[in-house]
């Protein structure tokens, strides 16, 4: 690999510093969130089917119950974190052009975090206003 | 090496077309395809949750956006998307557990086991998605 590595700072190269010791960080996060989803996804599948079936008022009752709201926020957190990591790998693998790749990586992060904020805050709103 | 700067005139080594077909390679790319599809599907779930969080306008019992989402879900197109979404979830779920068993205790690397397991994951996803759809529709 004779191509210059633009992400290494001149100071870093001069000092001969190696990696930041985060090489397996992505790998571990992907798998830990997967382990959480093993438990959350079966619950979510059955719960969401019943909720959609129950109609607007029934689904709001369901989402307003504390345990359902907590599990929904946990499912969204684990799933959207997991999918951000997965899409990051897909972008890094298939998008060669550096500028496009960086733009898509940023968009991926923003989209996942925005989706979590909107979904989780909506669940909290339903929970906190339930029975009010 | 960024792809845009590729200028090496030497031929690439042959890859996909020289491999003998086996079920594990289909399972491998399907994991990525279903994962990418679920990425976009999660935004639809977010839209449904947003609709659920809306309050009805004066004179409505159900907000217009929730009625719209409900109409999309009940339509033929919506039902097809739901069944495909369920199949993608179930495949990614089953195949993801296999990835964890590969990475952790290193179970399932034997070629015969790996192939059979790949076929199982596809069958699990297809049968499971149809079963969930039937349960949701008929019960």
Helix percent band of chain A: over 70%
User: Which radius of gyration of chain B do the C-alpha atoms yield?
Assistant: 21 Å
What proportion of the residues of chain A form beta strands (DSSP E)?
A: under 5%
Average pLDDT value of chain B? 88
Task: Write down how many β-strands of chain A occur, each being a DSSP E stretch of 2 or more residues.
Answer: 0
Poorly predicted runs of chain A: none
Biggest sheet statistics of chain B: none
Summarize the main sheet of chain A: none
Helix residue percentage of chain B? over 70%
What does the secondary structure layout of this molecule look like, with pairings?
The complex is a heterodimer of chains A (132) and B (139).
Chain A: H1 10-15, H2 25-53, H3 55-64, H4 66-94, H5 98-129
Chain B: H1 23-53, H2 64-74, H3 76-103, H4 111-138
Helix pairs in contact in B: 1-3, 1-4, 2-3, 3-4
What features would you describe in this structure?
The complex is a heterodimer of chains A (132) and B (139). Chain A is mostly helical and 132 residues long. In chain A, 80% of the residues lie in helices and 0% in strands. Chain A is built from five helices and no strands. In chain A, α2 crosses α3 (55-64), α2 (25-53) packs across α4 (66-94) and α4 (66-94) runs antiparallel to α5 (98-129). Chain A is elongated. The relative contact order of chain A is 0.11. The mean pLDDT of chain A is 89. Chain B is mainly α and 139 residues long. Chain B has four helices and no strands. Chain B has helices at residues 23-53, 64-74, 76-103, 111-138. Chain B starts with 22 loop residues before the first helix and ends with a helix. In chain B, 22% of the residues are buried.
List keywords for this structure.
heterodimer, A: 5 helices, B: 139 residues, mainly alpha
Task: Compose a concise summary of this entry.
In chain A, 80% of the residues lie in helices and 0% in strands. Chain A is mostly helical and 132 residues long. The longest helix of chain A is centred in the last third of the chain and has 32 residues, at 98-129.
